[in-house]
Amino acid sequence: MKFSVVTPSFNQAAFIGRTLASVATQTGVAIEHRVYDGGSTDGTVEILEQAGASITWSSGRDAGQADAVNKGLRGADGDVIAWLNSDDVYYPGAFERVARFVEANPQVDVVYGAADHIDTGDRVIEPYPVEPWSLARLEERSFICQPAAFFRRRVVDRHGLLDPRLCYCMDYEYWLRLGRAGATFAYLPEKLAGSRLHPGTKTLGQTVAVHAEINDMLKRTLGRVPRRWLVNYVYAEVRDRHGPGQPWLIEKARVLASMPAAARRWA
Fold first, then answer.
1. pLDDT tens across 29-42, in order?
2. Which of 266, 123, 120, 116 is nearest to 194 (CA)?
3. How confident is the model at residue 63 (pLDDT cuts 50, 70, 90)?
4. DSSP 60
5. What are the distances in angstroms from CA 31 to CA 26, 79, 82, 83, 148?
6. CA 16 to chain CA mean position, Å
7. Three-class secondary structure of residue 238 per DSSP
8. Which of 38, 60, 189, 239 is spaced 20 to 30 Å from 228 by Cα?
């Protein structure tokens, strides 16, 4: 069995060496690893040059993360495909566990595993809040950890590429699109990957923009925005405006006061 891994990259020299090593040390399957760098200037290119034949890579301006991943998805020829951001890692033995599951369950299109949030030193912060598969639940909460998700090549053939308009939630949109189109998902309750949290991540550094894009995407995809996502957006907006650590009752009052405007925005 062959695995194709696509890594979008931009100025992640502090982490990309560990990302590359976490792929290169996987065993039990054939691996192609394609890295698409957006023209990094922080030493990333030098690290890619030193990786040798274990990767195929290019560096130059692109149209963003989804565009970089799509370049890899177009060229990937593995039986199983995944993308791994340049600050995330796979855990040892992940590919072997996924390969065994895929071989034993030919009807499954997408398999996703358990995962952790990790810090800059690869230490576990907390388990990622992964849940067993439910499309209805996925509409309410993004519970699939992207670096712990793997899909068969037929998924790309049938359902296409990532939405290049999206900057933050391209993975969430993809899982929703696949689920609503009838793709078969399965949860593998084994730790497969570490999703890194650090100040440079888009999800931590741009929370209002992240939640606004999620709500715009949900409105297009579902025709509505679930209340949970409206609340998430308003909390992000209140904390961005007034700072974290507000007294709980004051923060809750501000959230309740802002909810009508958010509801109108995504009505």
1. 999 999 999 999 99
2. 116
3. confident
4. S
5. 8, 10, 11, 13, 16
6. 16
7. helix
8. 189
Q: Does the structure show a pLDDT above 90 at 244?
A: no
Q: Which two tokens stand for residue 34?
A: 């394609």
CATH superfamily, domain at 2-198 = Spore Coat Polysaccharide Biosynthesis Protein SpsA; Chain A (3.90.550.10)
Give the C-alpha separation, 242 to 234, whole Å: 12
- The encoded tokens of residue 53 equal 């034949």
Residues of the chain with CATH 3.90.550.10: 2-198
168-189 pLDDT, tens digit per residue, is 999 999 999 999 999 999 999 9
134 HSE (CA, 13 A, CB side): 9
pLDDT at 196: 95
> How far apart (Å, rounded) are the C-alpha atoms in residues 86 and 71?
15
Q: Which helix (H) or strand (E) holds 186?
A: strand 185-196
Task: Name the average pLDDT for the chain.
Answer: 95
Q: Specify whether the CB–CB gap between 53 and 23 falls below 8 A.
A: no
| Rounded distance between C-alpha atoms, residue 87 and residue 22, angstroms | 11
Contact present, 149 and 227 (Cβ < 8 Å):
no
Terminal-residue alpha carbon distance, the chain: 47
Among 221, 225, 150, residue whose Cα is nearest residue 180: 221
The helix or strand, by DSSP H or E, that contains position 149, with its residue range, turns out to be strand 149-152
